[in-house]
Amino acid sequence: MYFACDLCIPSSYKSGEYPVFLFSMSMEDYDYLFKIVLIGNAGVGKTCLVRRFTQGLFPPGQGATIGVDFMIKTVEIKGQKVKLQIWDTAGQERFRSITQSYYRSANALILTYDITCEDSFRCLPEWLREIEQYANNQVVTILVGNKIDLAEKREVLRQRAEDFAESQSMLYLETSAKESDNVERLFLDLACELIQEAKQNKLDNNDTAPMPGEGKTISYLSCCNLN
Amino acid sequence: MADNGPVAAKRCDAGSLSSVSMETILALTELEDLERVYQQLCAEEKEVDSELERLVGQEGTIHTKMLALQRMGPNLQLIEGDASQLSGMITFTCSLAENVSRKVRQLDLAKTRLYNVIQRADDILDLKFCTDGVQTALRNEDYEQAAAHIHRYLSLDQSVIELSRQGEESSAVDASLLMLQDAEQKLKVIVAEKLDEAVAAVDLAQVERFFKIFPLLGLHQQGLDRFGQYLCSQLSSKAEENLLLASGGDLGEKRAPLVFADTLTLLLEGIARVVETHQPIVETYYGPGHLYTLITHLQQECDRQAQKIVDKFIQQRGYHNKFQVAQSNMMKSVPGEGIEPRELDPVLTEVTLMNARAELYLRFLRRRMLADFEVGDAQSVTQEHQQNTEKLLKHCLLSRTMQELIGYYIPMEEYYMRESVNKAVAMDTYEKGQLTSSMVDDCFYIVKKCISRALSSSSIDCLCAMINHANSVLESDFREVLYNKLRQGFPATTLQDIQRGVSSAVSLMQSSLQQGKFNTMGIESAEHAKAAFLVTLNNVEVCSENITTLKRNLENDCSKLFNQGAGSGEQAKIESCLSDLVDTSAKFKDLLQEGLTELNTTAIKPQVKPWISSFLSISHNIEEEEFNDYEANDPWVQQLIVNLEQLMAEFKTAQSPVIYDILTSLMTSLISIEMEKTVLKCSFSRLGGLQFDKELRSLVAYLTTVTTWTIRDKFARLTQMATILNLERVTEILDYWGPNSGPLTWRLTPAEVRQVLALRVDFRSEDIKRLRL
Ligand SMILES: Nc1nc2c(ncn2[C@@H]2O[C@H](COP(=O)(O)OP(=O)(O)OP(=O)(O)O)[C@@H](O)[C@H]2O)c(=O)[nH]1
Ligand SMILES: [Mg+2]
Q: Does residue A17 belong to any structural domain of this protein?
């Protein structure tokens, strides 16, 4: 149906390691551009999920993220090039104010917890409050339970997480960055969903836009409703 | 005949020398055939003869060659003898060489053994020498010498020593060894004691003296530990002194607001200097790769002292308190209850300075450690060493503490920015003659200031966060303000109010009456609202440009940062955050466009429309006399031009050139559309058509002078309509239509052409219908 392709630029690259023209080329060469921000407690596996998706590997001894990391991957979905800007944020408390500044312009949020860690699940309402406060109201949020390869250590039952996600009208997916379970699907499903939204938005805008020069309704009313 | 037969046949079989066989000849009966064959045979005979002659001619040369060969025979025998002799010689030489090399190999082996023996003898001698030497040196308190002996002993081949003990001199060697081991232990204790004494006495010369001895005894780790402790205690007492001075408060006015940043700077510079001064000793006496160990020690002290400074900073500046006030104010946004943004200025500046210093310091340490590892590591710094370095720097308490400070800084700076922008909006003033009002300049001054401050922290994440917030403030808050101002609309003029009907006029009067200011206020506030709208349009336009400029300037500033060696990942991060500014700039452009459309709809259209439609009241179904009358007293177009001029004059002074230009473009479009509608409602005589043509020319000529856009194109349809209305006869259109159109491109459809033709009262509809277009 669709297949992932090309380019990813991990922030851990040393300078000069990727040619600049490649980057600038990718700037124009896409049909859609979406910003995806990963959030969730420290150590739940956000960085591993991103590295698995963008670089196809499970990094051994992955250290805690400092601030935010930035990666780009362009995927092709039904013949359309979709450029994903992925912001991998640090879960540690002291980086919270840096992380929060990225919510507003995010098209999608991947809220991650660790199925072997009850604590990371119990923090979810707190994360949802953050989203409520900082993200724009059109953001697509998906809940991800990571580390399903550690089935024997599971502390959060699938049903419980599904119920919770449903009550908050979020999508839900369980993944393993280690075994590469559902990781591709997570990002590609999200991209599909975002394309749908974008198309819907375009339609809505066209419906409400007044004819140019006619009537007193001004269409900039409709595009000002962020936050 | 019978004799010849078999012979000929035989010849034939053997060599087929002749192409004609005997039988064939015998079978011939015709004279003609016989003659032909005869001819053929004659020719063949000639050929054979010449071949024979050639072969006979060669006999001489063959003979000469044979002779030469016979002469060579003896020579060949000679060569064979020589060759076998040579082969014998080679075999002999070969075996000789083999013999020699075997002997050389044996010699070589002997030599190596000899060397080993000498080495062992030397070692044993050394052992003796060391044993004696170490005793003397210890007695003389010459610890360097003693350590040198022990070092010599320690670097002796242990297996050789073992072997020596099995030899004849075993007991002597054993005794030496025991003595040496004893001396080694003794020396280790003494050196440690002496170093501790020197440390206690704060005697740097002695400390360094004994520090150098440790690696000779194989005690690298211990030496570095003790030396590190010494340096740390030095740093600690100095740092405490500095902090006491800082919190004592008796400082010059000027540095007081930055005193904690200064104190931190002193600490970090002190450590950097320590690293710089002691790196050579460590390198020389401990070898490469050991600087890391020393720095690990120093960093622990740095962490302790930095934490103290930061704690004091937090306490004395009320840092957390300020943060909480700012934070809760932003959440609830209770105006007036928050902290004055101005009050945050010093602490925000101080904290960014602190972080910048820490980043600089950590970069310095990274450079030094990697350079030190590089000397020791084979090709490039090994991954393990690289990771150790990063781990030390990224996870040290100093880094974490700074990350925490920046974590609080960002919301405070955000608060500072939002509050200041709000203030700028609240105190917005407009001076006559300015195109924009004060809040645009003020707002961008604030945004620039905040981002520059974030940039000065040297933390890329901090900078990115502030770019995000700035973008949010501009795109949401500030744009909302301008948007709301535009939404109040451009008030229609009083004239229009009257035209709109009594009811609205009454309501206007009533509201004015209630305010007790009948006459003037209504008009004045309308004028005021008009000006406000026009200024806001300018504001929006300037904002869009300012954002583009802001982005460009930030790109320049950041490129400087990257020349200092931030990674390309970091660069991509900033680029992405900056590119959001482009979207925001575009949103301001959209807003401008919508505002202009609004202005066009409410201010230009209602005025221009009646001016145009007054064309209807001027008859264009006219005769010579009226035409001349119009010539003398222009009935319409001159007044229209005067009106338009007045209308646009207002915008020309009030608007930026860019906006004025867009506005005139909108107006000319409007005029051409309205004119077209109006003309189609009129009827024309031949002279009326001429009159219209004149009027249109005047109008186009005027409009060309007020705008930089080309308007011929916008008026192309009208001009073509005038051409049609000017025709003598219906069929004359064919001179301009289809293949005869020449350079003219018709903008009117055939149906429209018919429609315009029908406006002429003197054209018969049958003629028009009959036209083939
Ligand atoms: N078994 C297993 N371990 C995982 C998986 N994903 C991540 N981990 C481990 O979990 C730990 C934390 O992973 P990270 O990706 O660094 O977590 P993070 O969410 O990025 O953490 P912060 O950057 O501190 O917010 C690492 O030791 C990973 O090896 C997974 O799918 N299965
Ligand atoms: Mg991470």
A: no
